[in-house]
Amino acid sequence: MDYFVSDDQFNQLYPPAIAALASRHWTPIQIAKEAAAFLAVGQSPKILDIGSGVGKFCMVGAYFHPQAEFIGIEQRGSLTTIAQDLAKKLALKNTHFLTGNFTDINFHAYQHFYFYNAFYENIIDNDPIDQLIDHNPELFNLYNRKLYKALKPLPIGTRIATFHSSEHEMPSSYQVVGIGSHEDLKFWIKV
Ligand SMILES: C[S@@+](CC[C@H](N)C(=O)[O-])C[C@H]1O[C@@H](n2cnc3c(N)ncnc32)[C@H](O)[C@@H]1O
């Protein structure tokens, strides 16, 4: 079966409780396809998903762009495990998932980035992924500042696709060069 044709098909690959979170927390297939097409440029690019959840963006990217490598960093180990198991089941060799905080990642090891408003959970109360992580408005500001600092020194030409971003994390050296089919999907390039 081609799981990549629709969100309904793809989300059924996840345990029911995880699939139930999809409309709020996991990137829709169409958005992932558009973002991945923008990011998967050049020879064998390494693309980092900052807050990769259960790996939906990375798996869509890996499926449609076999020449690129999609790596996810996710703070919740249980979600990383689900992503790793699914990547194996789908025989996707060009996607990998790490557990940890994005603040510990060396951004220079990657060429391009995807960011689906990972920090928003710190400033909203409804529909959380779980109750296991400390939610704190100060973390929202701290993570935005850390991401800003990580993005700022990257080389000219670095690409980022953001979905529902507050844009606090984007240094002014990144310019919007396009908008996706959804107005909250933005394509940025460092100039
Ligand atoms: C909106 S979900 C997006 C998931 C995935 N990128 C996708 O599009 O399907 C954001 C994810 O970021 C993770 N996250 C939030 N803050 C993080 C941090 N500081 N480091 C790593 N992951 C983080 C959350 O646990 C959550 O799984």
Share in β-strands: 15-25%
Biggest sheet statistics: 7 strands, mixed
Radius of gyration: 15 Å
Instruction: Return residue spans where pLDDT drops below 50 for at least 5 consecutive residues.
Output: none
Provide the CATH topology. Answer: Rossmann fold
Task: Tell me the strand order in the biggest sheet.
Answer: 3-2-1-4-5-7-6
| Superfamily (CATH H level) name | Vaccinia Virus protein VP39
Gross morphology: globular
Number of domains: 1
Q: So, CATH architecture?
A: 3-Layer(aba) Sandwich
- State the CATH class: Alpha Beta
Written as H for each helix and E for each strand, in order along the chain, the element string is HHHHEHEHEEHEEE
Small molecules held by this entry:
S-adenosylmethionine
